[in-house]
Amino acid sequence: MTTTADAHPTADAEADRRIMLDRLAELEAEHAKAIAGGGPKYVQRHRDRGKLTARERIELLLDPDTPFLELSPLAAWGSDYPVGASIVTGIGVVEGTECVVTANDPTVRGGASNPWTLKKALRANEIAFANRLPLVSLVESGGADLPSQKEIFIPGGALFRDLTRLSAAGIPTIAVVFGNSTAGGAYVPGMSDHVVMVKERAKVFLGGPPLVKMATGEEADDESLGGADMHARVSGLADHFALDEPDALRTARSIVARLNRRKQGPSPRLAPEPPRYDEEELLGIVPGDLRTPFDPREVIARIVDGSRFDEFKPLYGPSLVTGWAELHGYPLGVLANAQGVLFSPESQKAAQFIQLANQRDIPLLFLHNTTGYMVGREYEQGGIIKHGAMMINAVSNSRVPHISLLIGASYGAGHYGMCGRAYDPRFLFAWPSAKSAVMGPAQLAGVLSIVARQSAAAGGMPYDEEADAGLRAMVERQIEEESLPAFLSGRLYDDGVIDPRDTRTVLGVCLSAVHNAPVEGARGGFGVFRM
After folding, report:
1. Are 157 and 198 in the same domain?
2. Do residues 107 and 47 lie in contact, with contact meaning Cβ atoms separated by under 8 Å?
């Protein structure tokens, strides 16, 4: 039966809304650091050279008034490197075609790549490959940040491997070179399908004049070694010779227009109906204290088309909500944690639901708010291990696209069963309210305390209660800090922390992106389910 999700904000919604707004303000301050690039001094120096910033280049590349879903904007947060990792990545529309776009930020150490730059670029490549999205690289980089070369050189070869694999899979790659693309970076245009270089700006060579002098004794200048004119007339590396940056971006748009791309997944329903409930109310649904339960149907009602949700097995395994909906016209299966803990019935219900989605070729959305699988003698004897394994097996071997959204807690093996990062969701985003760790801070500190207490008793030693209290406080503080969205997003454990009010738009972009590739479920091959 088709039902509309209940939508009744709690009495504490206004207080929870204020907490969420405070968290959003904190995250906005961190996002601002990424947008600022290398800071006013270096941005102005870049402009004085007649150059556009990375985000200005992206804006000119994309179709006017279309969204750009930026990915991993908090990369490198909490590290020794600038927030944003000196590169901008995301999904945007170019001449009506959805593309993954990457742009080096030359205002940050000349666009040099640090370890987080590499991780962020590789994640963008992964998204392009999985969803069959053309990759447009806006290049201006001084190469590897040499002091950190030990963390870049060996894994960095995957960047060039990815370009060749994308091309081999028939996924177009386009490099637009605005400045330096030297040493290993020369292989970005060298391995791309289409290359645009800007006159008197592009510098593409394996070794610059100083290195050539040291290696061979030859005297050479930048232009003769790797200038755009030389590559357009002599080496043939440049397919298109652009007079300036706007001309280069117009050329890139023309290339995309001629790609003749067609989506391979089914088209969405035309003119989808918006939700019946206000997206602003999403700010007040998740409690400030995640130990307080909330109904995920409240979230579903504010993001799916017409707020219509056909619930599957509503009376069985009630702490996991499962059902069918549409979002921006695309069919969608939803799994959402209701009361945090996953029991055996919830695990079995999830496995069956995932199999059904695969039979129907319907993408899945996982809304996380789980403390993990239930523990205790009764539940162990009841088979929680084999039933949890059944759910994880189904998630692991499902072939329809998965999208995960952390809205509350995502602890323990429940994070795995709900398609955490290690299970290759096509996209994974988080709300500012989300937390993720092996378990909650208080539980983890308590476990360590119990183990230490038992160890002291076994050795016949007195137990230092004061030291125990200090240890518990320290561990709780550490785990709390390491489970927060900015910390996790900084390490690319998600694709970004989003404003809850943007959830429907973000999910719509993701669903549209995944339909560039075939949407086909597994018809078998789930392995052995322990019954």
Report:
1. yes
2. no
